[in-house]
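Let's practice the habit of predicting before peeking. Look at the sequence and jot down your guess about where helices and strands might fall. Then scroll down.
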Amino acid sequence: MRWTAQLRRRAAAVAATALLGAGLAVTTGPAPSYAAEVTTPAACSQEGTIAKTLKNGTSWYMCWNVESKKGLVLESVYVKAPHDTGYRKVLDSLALAQLNVPYDSGQHLWNDITSYGFGNQYLQKLDPSECPDGELIDVDQAWLQRSGTNSAYVTRTLPAICVQEVETGLAYRSHEQDWGSIDDDLLFTKQGTSMVVSTVSKVDWYEYQSRYEFTDGGVIAPSLGATGDISPEDFADPVYGWPVGPGATGAAATSHHHNAFWRVDFGIDGASTQRARYMDSTSTSTGPRGPILTTSTTPVTAAVGLPMVKRRIYNVYAPTSENADQHPRGYEIVFGADDPYEAQPETTNQVTFTQYNACQEFASQNQNPACALQSVVDYVANSTTSNISNPVAFVNVGFHHLVRDEDQSPMPIHWQGFELVPRDFWSMNPLTPTARECVNGNPGGQVDSTTACGWATASDVVLSAPSQVAGTGTPATATVTVEQLSGSGTIPVGTVSLTDGLDLVATGVQVGTDGTAVVPIPASLAAGEHQLTAVFAPEPGTKWMTSASSTVPFTVEAAAVTASPSVAPSASPSVSPSATPSADAPKATRTSFSLAKKKIKVKQRARVKVSVSGATTGTVVIYSDGKRVGTASLTGGAAAVQLKKLGVGSHKITVTFVGSSGALSSTAGAKVLKVVK
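Done guessing? Here is the structure:
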């Protein structure tokens, strides 16, 4: 790559480690006033956990549950930017709160969430083709199914949650080029990705995808997609809709509204006090070359329903949690296409703010007995709070569906939703490249990061081989080239390190006078798939800046275990005179394991006992049908592991000892574990 200043701030961390190792102080400036980050969010008490680090280094963590009415519920949502040392909370919870569907003919009005729901029998099993390059998560369900006067208790486990990382296109671009110039100057550009969490629920003729997108820039985008088929029960006079099918006249499919509500319970940085406000930018007068708009801020102190207004931004923030620029952290509610439905009181407003009340779960026909059958209108009318300190937002997004010929069949999916966008949650773009870190505030003119920050560099890495065998005597190498992109210097001076995700693989290799460094890949690198990145750390006191290469894949294959330790001389590989004596070569190992029970119930978690001969320490990984379900560290060559919950069916369990500097990896033969209801 020509320019990869888009490094994950782990590059800066590696550079800082190098400075500390040299006995030099690392200055970070005055400590801003904000709450401490959380190294690891608390374990989920709900059904499960979703945690993912995106390609650009942003990490998301959250708990999930599937409820009978709301469907997918996300709780305790945390984010960690590439440069952050820990996670910060954004939301306490996020879920659908109603789907109101009135038909234009006045004959039907449905509340799909409270009358039916997106869980129980309405939750759909996902086919692997619906989750390409993603992970399907099993959902355990149990409910009382009623049919007439009969009822039966139903339990099932089905793959119903899809978690994917998807490409989002251009994340940012800045060309340090004077206005009107054609000079090919320094370019900062990056492609982005998002984590998408989704489910599908079928209510009558419609099939809905509940979709939550979490971007590498910190944005959360809830949306609802509607597909399925046109309702055959809703064909009427064309005045209420649009003719579909052959002919220009006849019955028409009835138009209808989809009023989707989400309940957003904010948890900005876990602060005990949060505030809500909205900002309006309105035209107040005319300047020399155009209208003048001024922005005013209105605090939300009492429960209120607020209609759609042009250029209005809703913001929830934590006054006691400040970013490095000493601005309070917050998130704002941003709308795209929206068509509020004014024919009903509860669907008229775009956002309704209330003080947190556990019984206020749904936007209408509330199902909690403590606030039974109330709506957002009632929450506002009944509120006695005049100083909201724990705001909850009921966000309403409307879509009027005027049916068309192309809606048959199946109906193309149509979307409605909004975004939760960070406002001052960070002091800069969470993906800011190192070479732009000091461009904060008024730059005083065309941005020139070389003058403001230092000499930008670029690092590139080429592997001598795409793989190696664990414990090999001839490990592969990574040739790293470091190039200066700006300033008047020549070959950058410093050292190169190699990382695998957040793990440091090799460090301290000096960049030569030709701008390259050859880094051996350790023979002790564990068997499996690795993602290697080269990181350049400049010599202390120089103007060069840290940079990192793009990530390259590297595979470590498990070493074959031979029946006899002796090897015929003719089969021995040639070695150089300086090679390590064979007495110090990694030893062969043998891994075995046993299942505590060969059959368990779906709510139980299997236990595995592992034994590795030839090694006393190291790591073992347990796989179910090729998917990792547990890890453990050996103590005295043994370990006991409790696996993740598995779905109903037969599962092939295998165990791999990943190897170490003194012991080769090995894999035990498969055993079958049966999981029953």
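How did you do? The longest strand covers residues 150-175.
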